[in-house]
Amino acid sequence: KLHYEEAGSGTPIVFVHEFAGDWRSWEPQLRYFSRGYRCIAYSARGYLPSDVPEGIERYSQEHWREDLRAVVDGLRLEQPHVVGLSMGAFATLHFGITYCAQGRPPKARSLTLAGVGSGAHPAAYRGFQDSARANSEAIGRHGMAHFAATYGHGAARIQFRNKDPRGFAEFIKQLAEHSAAGSANTMAGYQGRRPSLYGLTGEISRIDVPVLIMTGDEDEPCIEASVMLKRAIPKSGLAVLAKSGHGINLEEPGLFNQLLDDFFHRAEAGSWSARDPRAAPPSIWGPGGKP
Q1: pLDDT for the residue numbered 156
Q2: Nearest CA among 89, 79, 75 for reference residue 15
């Protein structure tokens, strides 16, 4: 069972949170977009007050993708905008691969991939998997308070702490409240086993709905993958937020909401079109590559 909360009415938006977040992470977006949209934020499996299944075999990329589909289908949402951050952006991307590809009626009106790509680059892929398994063991050994005090203060979180100490303190407090079992299983079962995006560029390129990619310019693990996704997805645009880290929806909520609001209006108006082939010369940087 997945816990969700909603606000507002109108065209639906589904928000899919990151590893270090839960449904509460989208509060700045629910408060803003509920003025004109029906906003839904849910806690993923393993994140209270949703169920916390036992065993890592019940945590995977496919599980997260299908849980997102279950929210869309269970609430009878007709082509919602889907907005994902980090691990939630991976789920959103795989939802797009499966349910928004060319040749089938799309289940989403648009997709937003924010802070996407950690561990995706071939040079970082194996190391990221090893790190995820080590993080899972650390959570089991030391608990969530210790994990929040270490992982929660990583290189792409310092920007948030420096800009907004009060907001950052709330983020750390909420991270420390997560289920240790659920977080450890998510790290080992999902983060530590998800496929490399660089091995899926053919499938990614068939996504046929408007896509907004957002990254902070100091979110080092995500910059290259975000550029690759921009090149791979025909109907995509890339926004880079200056002097920003990973959790950009909380770190820069005003700018994040402004970019998202403009994207939604353009997607709904049909003016967010595919890239003009004349503006897409071959790139020496990809998107291809072996994981």
Answers
A1: 97
A2: 89
Classify strands 12-16 and 236-241 as parallel, antiparallel or unpaired: unpaired
Q: Is the pLDDT confidence value at 179 over 80?
A: yes
Q: Give yes or no for residue 291 having a pLDDT over 50.
A: no
Quote the CA–CA distance of 56 and 59 in Å, as a whole number.
5
What is the pLDDT, as a whole number, of residue 89? 98
Three-state SS letters, the chain: CCCEEEECCCCEEEEECCCCCCHHHHHHHHHHHCCCCEEEEECCCCCCCCCCCCCHHHCCHHHHHHHHHHHHHHCCCCCCEEEEECHHHHHHHHHHHHHCECCCCCCCCEEEEECCCCCCCCCCHHHHHHHHHHHHHHHHHHCHHHHHHHHHHCCCCHHHHHHCHHHHHHHHHHHHCCCHHHHHHHHHHHHCCCCCHHHCHHHHCCECCCEEEEEECCCHHHHHHHHHHHHHCCCEEEEEECCCCCCHHHHCHHHHHHHHHHHHHHHHHCCCCCCCHHHCCCCCCCCCCCC
The stretch 70-80 carries a mean pLDDT of: 98
